[in-house]
Every structure is written in C-alpha cells, then in structure tokens.
Amino acid sequence: MPADTDLAGVKVFKFDPAVDDAPRYAAYEVPYQGATVLQVLRRIYRQFDPLLAFRWGCEGAGDCRCGACALLVNGRPALSCRKAAEAHMVIEPHFKFEIIRDLVVDFNAVRKDIARAGDVPVKISIDPGKCVQCADCITLCPVGVYEARKGVIVASGPEYCCDETCRQCVTYCYQNAIQVKTVTSVHS
Ligand code: SF4
Ligand code: SF4
Ligand code: FES
After folding, report:
1. Tens digit of pLDDT for each residue in 19-52?
2. How confident is the model at residue 103 (pLDDT cuts 50, 70, 90)?
3. What's the number of domains the chain is made of?
4. Pocket test for ligand 3, best of 63, 79, 103, 161 (most atoms within 8 A of CB)
5. Which of 167, 173, 178 to mutate to test the pocket of ligand 2 (most atoms within 8 A of CB)?
6. Which domain covers residue 158, as residue numbers?
7. Threshold 0.90, pTM exceeds
8. Measured at the alpha carbon of residue 81, what is the angle toward residues 136 and 60, in degrees to the nearest 5?
9. Nearest C-alpha to atom 8 of ligand 2 is from which residue?
10. 178: domain CATH number?
11. Closest residue by CA, ligand 1 atom 2
C-alpha cells in the first residue's frame, strides 16, 4: 500500500454532452510521483473508471508533439504526456475547443463562448526580421495559437499555449524566429 504522501488528490472533469445536463468532477487518490499526467490518467482509467475518455498519440517521444493530449492541469494548458504530475490536480479539457466527452475535445471546433479571464501565462514573440511567413507554425501548433493576418503570421492566441510541455513551434521554426517565454509572475 502506498503512503498517503505518495498519492495525488486528483479531480477529473466528467461530461458527456449527449446525456449529461452538466459537467461534474470525479475525485481520486492515485500514486503520482515520477509520473506524467497522462500516466496518472491511465492509472485512474485502469483502477477506477474504465469509461474515462482521454486521448494521446505520440506520448511525447522525440521532439515532435502530436498534441492529441492537450488539456488543462490546474487551469493551465499542457500536454499531459509531458506534464509532470503534481500532488493536487484538477484536470479538465482544453478550454478552447468543444467537448466530445470528458477530456476529449474536437480540435476542429473552437468554442463560440470562450471566456478566459485572468493572465496569459506565456509571452510569444516572432522576430519579423527572421520570419519568412512560411506558416509552418500554424500547422505545427496543436492548439491553434498562430494565424495569418493580412499575410503576416501572428501569435493571436497565446492563452491557449501548452508552453514548456510543447515548444513545438520553437523547435521546428527553421528560421529560429519564435520565442515562447513563461511569464512566471502569473504562476499561482
Ligand atoms: S515557422 Fe517561423 S518562419 Fe515560418 S511563419 Fe512561423 S515564425 Fe515565421
Ligand atoms: S509551444 Fe508553440 S506549438 Fe506548442 S502550444 Fe505553444 S505556441 Fe503552440
Ligand atoms: S501524446 Fe502526443 S503530444 Fe502528448
């Protein structure tokens, strides 16, 4: 039996829009030390809730990120396969997209009612002297941070960014034009 200090208190968002009137949160105590958030979700799936819906693909292997596992951990966007589990976690679907079920979202369906209060935890800059408007960053970003405005690539949605768990744009912009910096002062 693990000691209590080895167990994380985890609340997981549960909602099936097809049958549920409102979302709820299911609470679990799960071993977490040395695990990623994705591994904790798998433990919950195996031990407590075989109906829990969550998604992953590449599991963070290598530099390339598929982005399938993007969600919120304690209100912050993250890739669950790269995010270290913490002792207290509220795990929710990424707020930008329509919910399919539980933590699974439709990345092709942006919510019409996005209301995001509070600070943006990252600062994203594109060096105009280096950027060649190739649009690779639009394609690479799993959560749609970038867009083209009048032919210029801009980071129009930094609040969606999975930050240090991702860095896909920084890694693959061949012009080395992108900087993604965590704004530490807004961390709770
Ligand atoms: S990948 Fe780099 S060079 Fe290409 S549009 Fe994005 S910032 Fe510009
Ligand atoms: S690090 Fe870059 S690619 Fe990853 S979510 Fe943030 S803006 Fe998108
Ligand atoms: S599973 Fe591919 S980025 Fe997490």
Report:
1. 999 999 999 999 999 999 999 999 999 999 999 9
2. very high
3. 2
4. 79
5. 167
6. 122-183
7. yes
8. 50
9. 141
10. 3.30.70.20
11. 173
